[in-house]
Amino acid sequence: MSHLSTIASPQLWAITIAVLLALLAADFAITHRPHDVKMREAVGWSLFYLALPAAFGVILWQVYGRKPAMEFYTGWVVEKSLSVDNLFVFMLLLAAFAVPPELAQRVLLYGIIGALVLRAVFIAAGAAVLQTGAWAFLLFGAALLATAVKVVRDAARDEDYQVDIDTMRSVRLLRRLMPVSSVYHGGRLSFKDGGRRTLTPLALVVVAVFVTDLVFAVDSVPAVYGVTEDPYLVFATNMFALLGLRALYFVLRNVLGKLRHLDYGLAVILAFIGVKLVLHWAHKLWPSAVPDIPTELSLAVIAVTLATVTVTSLIANKRAALNV
Length: 324
Known about the structure:
Layout: H1 10-31, H2 39-64, H3 66-96, H4 104-130, H5 135-156, H6 169-177, E1 190-193, E2 196-199, H7 201-225, H8 231-243, H9 245-252, H10 262-285, H11 295-323
Antiparallel strand pairs: 1-2
Helix pairs in contact: 1-4, 1-8, 2-3, 2-8, 2-9, 3-7, 3-8, 3-10, 3-11, 4-7, 4-8, 4-9, 5-7, 5-10, 10-11
């Protein structure tokens, strides 16, 4: 049985969770008054949530050294990349449930909170599995390679994502358990109708977003464990990647569909980290024969992959526009 090393003391965990709760409270205060988010507001908050991890990485570098800081930055880039795909599914769910624009950010906030809770559970479970031995890296690597293959197959079909809310098991179960209103009631999840508690469509979309969060947590947590074995850094990368999603959604909602090659890029990243995890497992068994991929190389591969798919997407969009 191996022991996972971490830079975090109980005090650092307490400070981090306190900062997280304070930021979530601020987000709740902002979304308390429903309104359609304008681009200027979304860009401002997006820049704020980009500055936070940048500053956090600098603090890590100063206090704990270069290695944990580089692992944090690399893990954050991985999580942010995967979260953009998460946002695309959120966008489809908001459209499928016809969520009013002024309520979109409240739905996103509920989704972020659900994602944070689920990631915390998966991170703890992942740490427990890793402590049982090096075989866990082989398991995580195989899972990521399988996910990468599935992502490529789905992307190669070149079909538009479809969300049929009537076939979603979570929605059907809720409708069976409680009456559901056909109209939204502001930011309320439920209300009393004739003395009986009735759900609003907002409750259905929030549950659908939570179920989506569960699917993404299965992929993202093993991916970041491929960058660092420190559970604290895994949590921090997830926290900073997820916190800015609400604002980033409103910045990217008009361009998400134009990143037509994003799925291929994510598949490359997942496959690369999967191979890295398998090599890490082999390195632990045969340290002199099998190399360990350094964090700096991982960051470079991820950055080049994201830049490449962005450029190829823009070129493909331009060609498609010329052929119309």
